[in-house]
Amino acid sequence: MGDVPERWASVRAVLPAVTARFADLVGAADPKALATSEWTVADTAAHVVAIASIYTTLLAPDGAEVADPALAERIPTVTVDTVADLNDLALRRFTERDPAALTGMLRSMVASIIDMTEGADPESTVPWLGASRLPVAGVLAHFVNELLIHGWDIARAVDAPWPMPSEEAGLFFDLFIIGLARNDFGTLLDDAPRDDRRIAVAFRSRHTAPVTLVLHRGRVTVGEPGGRVDVRVTFDPAVLHLVLFGRVSRVRAALTGKLRVTGRRPWLLPTFLRAVRMPTNAVPLSAG
Known about the structure:
Blueprint: H1 4-28, H2 41-58, H3 69-74, H4 83-93, H5 99-116, E1 125-127, E2 133-135, H6 136-158, H7 166-182, E3 198-204, E4 211-216, E5 219-222, E6 231-235, H8 237-244, H9 250-255, E7 259-262, H10 269-275
Parallel strand pairs: 3-6
Antiparallel strand pairs: 1-2, 3-4, 4-5, 6-7
């Protein structure tokens, strides 16, 4: 687990390593094979490269804006439910589909991201989707997760191995999800219920820091230590993220023993997850 500086060092080491695995996977796959119900392997790789391109701008020392005006205009107003539209727009405007070109760009962009964040404060924030504020460490962790999830899609499509170590997946939970909760979700969760019911969910894993997230009146915050908890979730980060992104069903995850739900009011977890949810566009060909 470790504190933010330790996790910052980890995510900076993990990002180039996962990028190399992803690039090798794409290079060996049939670019026309369907990785999801709508995206080919080449489309999926292009989606990842498009995100990398945005992040090279977002993380630039001068804080430059995204060069494409159409994307720049949409990014601040996006919600979880409209991320799919933004992704589709980005894919239409980013037309490269040659695997060699895509993997070359990806490796170069990630190298630039690592270089430009050398010496950066990992807890300093940058504007992200939906006018949210995301720590720099969370940006890198988000990209690691994009590579892991979409690598999983491609690997399933072409029957190739794809490791998703829990230590790598845990970076997304610690640095991205909790990073947003400690700062500002902006408009990302605008459709969250805004009633007075308070739902507190404690998350526990051997690979992440223990934390409680609280949903109350449409806002998600980090709960105070020792506060009342309604639901307890014990999880393996790789499995939890596949569930959150619609790749694996909750039933299948529970049967593996790597996702357990307990607590005094466990039936509140589905309500919590309907509000605190992740985009599930680019649906896999089959999710079990």
